[in-house]
Write a structure and sequence with these properties.
With 255 residues, this protein is an alpha/beta fold. It has one domain: Alpha/Beta hydrolase fold, catalytic domain (Rossmann fold). Helix content is 35%, strand content 20%. An eight-stranded mixed beta sheet has the order 1-2-4-3-5-6-7-8, sandwiched between helices.
């Protein structure tokens, strides 16, 4: 297994960006790719620093790409950069150019935590032809569905991302999920959240929407809060979920 950090210039963002990559030493290339997204206050190094992700994928023929999403919620900002275009179009093209990655929908999945949980579903539902599966841990799943709380100090920042009254827009996961269902092109979805997490009500509301719409999904709640202990534990279930949809069979241990 190899670990690398890559720096490159994003033409979409007009700046230098970075990503961390885990490359497998089992299986035969080209390999499927798991795009793993960070939360609002973190960067592309955080999953590797705060979890055992490298250990969890040690026997998998899977590339893990952990890109920098900055604070843009992985969506094309109303007043700002086009983060969705950067993540769903520009980044995979770069990965496929320089790494032994598969290029088909069936070889690409995405997941993340908090802002990245929203982002994983935003990208998978906004570009359903590009991802076979998506998962969210502790996701901010109603971001882009309602205006931010005006008492939140970050409200002006969030309004620059979504614009006013974003419901029904490409920022709104409910709208995107409904459109995918109508098109018959839904990625497989898995959502989990801790029972002590402040985002649990938003996750339950999104779950109720999926059930009402008849949209297939997996959902789980586990003890825990908005913490790395929780995400380090439950990324393992997310990996198993993605492996099923990618058709990955873990390598047998050495005899």
């Amino acid at each position: 297994m190899a670990f690398a950090q890559m720096q490159w210039r994003s033409e979409v963002l007009g700046k230098q960006v970075g990503m961390a990559v885990i490359l497998p030493d089992v299986g035969v290339p080209p390999f499927p790719v798991f795009y793993l997204l960070h939360g609002l206050s973190d960067d592309y190094t955080i999953w590797h620093r705060r979890t055992r992700i490298e250990w969890y994928v040690r026997d998998l023929p899977l590339i893990v790409v952990m890109p920098d999403g900055f604070r843009g919620f992985y969506t094309d900002n109303a007043q700002g950069p086009d983060y969705a275009t950067y993540m769903a179009v520009e980044l995979p093209a770069l990965v496929q150019r320089f790494l032994p990655a598969r290029t088909d929908r069936g070889g690409r999945c995405i997941g993340g935590l908090s802002m990245g949980g929203y982002g994983a579903l935003r990208l998978a539902l906004g570009y359903p032809e590009r991802y076979v599966s998506a998962n969210s841990h502790s996701g901010a799943l109603l971001f882009g569905h309602r205006n931010p709380d005006p008492q939140d100090a970050r409200a002006p920042e969030f309004l620059r991302i979504t614009g006013p009254n974003p419901a029904g827009s490409t920022h709104d996961l409910l709208t995107l999920a409904r459109r995918c269902g109508e098109r018959g092109m839904l990625p497989a979805l898995r959502i989990d959240c801790g029972t002590e997490d402040f985002l649990l009500p938003a996750n339950r509301e999104f779950l109720a929407f999926l059930k009402a719409e008849g949209i297939a999904h997996e959902y789980a709640e586990f003890p825990g809060a908005h913490t790395w202990d929780y995400w380090d534990t439950h990324v393992q279930e997310a990996l198993a979920f993605h492996c099923r949809h990618l058709g990955i069979i873990p390598a047998a241990p050495p005899a």
